[in-house]
Design brief:
Two copies of one chain form a homodimer.
Chain A (H helix, E strand, L loop, with lengths): L11 H8 L1 H12 L2 H6 L5 H8 L3 H13 L3 E4 L2 E4 L1 H6 L11 H5 L2 H8 L1 H7 L14 H10 L1 H22 L3 E6 L5 H9 L3 E7 L1 H13 L6 E5 L11 E7 L7 H14 E11 L10 H13 L8 H10 L4 E5 L7 E6 L1
Parallel strand pairs in A: 3-4, 3-6, 4-5, 6-7
Antiparallel strand pairs in A: 1-2, 7-9, 8-9
Helix pairs in contact in A: 2-5, 4-5, 10-13, 11-12, 14-16
C-alpha cells in the first residue's frame, strides 16, 4: 500500500515482541509432553500424538502446528516430522538431547524475576531480594546443574584444545581447578579428552553431587576431586596449571571480581592461567547480539552483575595481579574465552 | 567450522526460543518506564535517561542497550535515538501511541494462562477454569478495551471502504451493530469516516463505558447507541445493514458460533451483511504465520476457541442460514474479513 521507498512504520514488530513469550511457553510445553520424541518414534498425526503423549488431540494439534510455524517441526500433507535441530536436540533418544534446558531457562524463579524487570530497572539491580549470589541457593543451582550441562560441552572441547599443546610437551599431570563447577561438564569434558588432566571442582555440596554423578558417567571419577564451599572463602588449594572460571564473574560487580581473581591468582602456579568463559560484548555493548543481550539477564537476576567487555575484564585481571590477558573468540559459539597468565 | 553444505544442527534456535520471553518483558519495561518518550524528548544517554525516567543509570543503560539489540532503538557513539517504529508507536506524544497494548498482551492473566500451557495441551482447552467467555469478566475485557483500541483502527478503515459504495448509493442512514464492541473502535472509526453510519454497540456495561468514552472523543456520540449484555441472549434489535463481528468467534467452538450467527442473521435486514474480522489460517493451519499462530492463544485462554480456516467459517455461516460467504484478504494486516450476506 505504501508508495515510499522506506517501509512504512508498522506496529507489527512491537506486537510480536509483546507476544513473544508465547514462543517460549509453546516450546517448553512441547518438551514437557515429549512431543519431539513421539514424532521421532513415528507418531505424526494429532490422533496418534495425543495417544502417545497423553494429551488431547485438539491440544496437541494446535501445539504441533504452532511449533511448525516456529520452525521446530515440518508439516506436509497433515503429517509432522522433526527438523534436523529437533531430531538432534529435542528427541530424548538423541545423545545430544537438551530439552532439560527448559527447566532452568524457564524456571519459575527466572520468570518471576523477569516479571519484575521494571522494578529492577528502577533499582539498578534485581528487585527480587536474592541477587548477591554469594550464598548457597541449592534449588536454583542444582536445577542449573541438572539442566544446562549439555550447553557446556562444545566450549569444553575448545578449552581442551587450548590446554592440549602444553599437555603434550610436559607429559606430567595437568591440574585444573573448576570454580563454581555446577554440572561440572567443563572440567569433566576436558578430563575425558586429555587423560593427564586432574580436576578439582569447587561448588556448594548439593551442586557437587550432580558434578560427581557426571564425572562418574564420564568414567573420570579417579581424576576428579571436589572442594565444598564458596569461591569467596573456601580453601582453593594451590599450584594449579589452569583455573576454569565459567559463567561466574558475570554475577558480580568489578571490585568483587577483582577480589575473586586475586584469590584465583594465588591458587595458580607461576605461569598458570585462568580460562574465563563468558558472554563478552563489544565496547558498544549492543553487539554481538547474544553476548550483549546477556546483560539484561544479569540485571534481572543479580544485584550488580553484568556482561563485561574485554576492556573491563582486562582491567579486573590487571588489578588482581595477572601479567597478561587476552580474548579468544570461538567460532560458532556465543561465548568467548578470556585467558590470563600469572 | 563446518565443511558440509547444509548448516550443522545447532541448539541456538532452541536456546533463543526458551529465552525469548525476555524480549517481551524488556519491551514492557521500556514502555512502563516511558523510555521511548524520554528519548524522543531528547534524553539520549544513561545519566539523562535515568533522571528523566526515575530509574537507576545502570538499569536504564542495560535496558536501552537490550532494546537497541532488539531493534527498537538506535545507538551511535553512546547516544540512543528512536527507530521510525518506536517514534510513531512508542513515544507517548505520538497520536498513534500503542504502548498501552502491553497491559493486555502481557497481563498477569495472560501470563498465568501461558505458564499452564502444558496442562491446557493435555486437556485440549484452557486449564485456567475460566475459558467459556460467555460471562462478564470485567477486569479482563475492560483492560482489553483500554489497551488494544489502537490496533483496530487500520482494519476499521478497511471496513469503512467495504461499506462506502452502498453508503453513496442510498444516501439514507446505514445501521451497524458492533457485537462485543470492546473499545468500540471498529464501529466508531467507521462512523467517523462515514457520516451516515449509525452504530449500536453491544457489550458488558463496564466495557461499554470505555466505548462511549471513545465515541465521545471521536465526536460521534450522537450516532452511537449501546445495548448491554451478552451476544448469546441480549435483545440485539433488528433491521441492521451490517453487523461487525470482530475478534469474537475465535473464542467459541463451531456449534456455539452457528448459534450466534443464527441470532445475527435474524438481526440483519434482508441483503444485510456480517463483516467478521478474524485471524484466518490457510487449510494447512501453519500459514500465514501470524494468523495460524493465534490458534495457540485460543488454546491457552479458552475452553474451545480456535483460529478457524475459511472453509470452517463458511460452513458455520451456511448452517446459520446465510446465502453467501466470501473471504477478503487485507494488504499489510494479519487479519482478514469474512463477509456473509443474508
Amino acid at each position: 500500500m505504501s508508495t515510499a521507498a522506506a517501509p512504512r512504520p508498522s506496529p507489527e514488530k512491537i506486537f510480536e515482541a509483546l507476544t513473544r513469550y508465547q514462543q517460549t511457553f509453546a516450546l517448553k510445553a512441547g518438551i514437557e509432553v515429549d512431543l519431539f520424541t513421539a514424532i521421532g518414534e513415528g507418531a505424526n498425526e494429532p490422533a496418534a500424538l495425543a495417544k502417545r503423549t497423553q494429551t488431547a488431540e485438539r491440544g496437541v494439534r494446535i501445539l504441533a502446528d504452532y511449533l511448525t510455524i516456529q520452525g521446530f517441526l515440518n508439516k506436509e500433507n497433515g503429517k509432522y516430522s522433526l527438523t534436523p535441530d529437533s531430531a538432534v536436540f529435542l528427541d530424548k533418544r538423541s545423545p545430544a538431547y537438551m530439552g532439560a534446558m527448559a527447566e532452568f531457562l524457564v524456571s519459575g524463579q527466572n520468570l518471576d524475576n523477569m516479571q519484575i524487570l521494571t522494578a529492577s530497572v528502577r533499582k539498578g539491580g534485581t528487585a527480587s531480594g536474592i541477587g548477591d549470589n554469594s550464598k548457597p541457593e541449592d534449588e536454583r543451582w542444582v536445577n542449573f546443574a541438572r539442566s544446562m550441562g549439555s550447553m557446556a560441552v562444545p566450549m569444553a572441547g575448545v578449552l581442551a584444545q587450548m590446554i592440549a599443546p602444553n599437555s603434550g610437551s610436559s607429559g606430567g599431570p595437568i591440574r585444573v581447578l573448576d570454580v563454581a563447577a555446577g554440572h561440572g561438564l567443563y572440567g569433566i569434558t576436558v578430563a575425558k579428552i586429555l587423560p593427564n588432566v586432574q580436576v578439582t571442582a569447587l561448588d556448594w555440596p548439593a551442586v557437587l553431587e550432580v558434578a560427581k554423578e557426571n564425572a562418574s558417567k564420564a568414567g573420570i571419577l579417579d581424576r576428579y576431586a571436589t572442594r565444598h564451599g564458596s569461591a569467596f572463602d573456601a580453601d582453593l588449594g594451590e599450584g594449579y596449571d589452569y583455573i576454569f572460571i565459567t559463567n561466574f564473574l558475570h554475577h558480580f560487580d568489578p571490585p568483587t571480581n577483582e577480589k575473586l581473581l586475586r584469590r584465583f591468582h594465588a591458587a595458580l602456579k607461576p605461569g598458570g592461567k585462568t580460562l574465563t568463559v563468558e558472554f563478552v560484548p563489544n565496547p558498544d555493548r549492543v553487539t554481538p547480539p547474544m553476548a550483549a543481550a546477556f546483560s539484561l539477564v544479569m540485571l534481572a537476576h543479580t544485584d550488580s552483575g553484568d556482561a563485561y567487555t574485554f576492556a573491563e575484564y582486562e582491567k579486573m585481571h590487571c588489578a588482581a595481579g595477572f601479567k597478561s590477558c587476552s580474548l579468544h573468540p570461538v567460532a560458532d559459539l556465543p561465548q568467548q574465552v578470556v585467558v590470563a597468565e600469572k
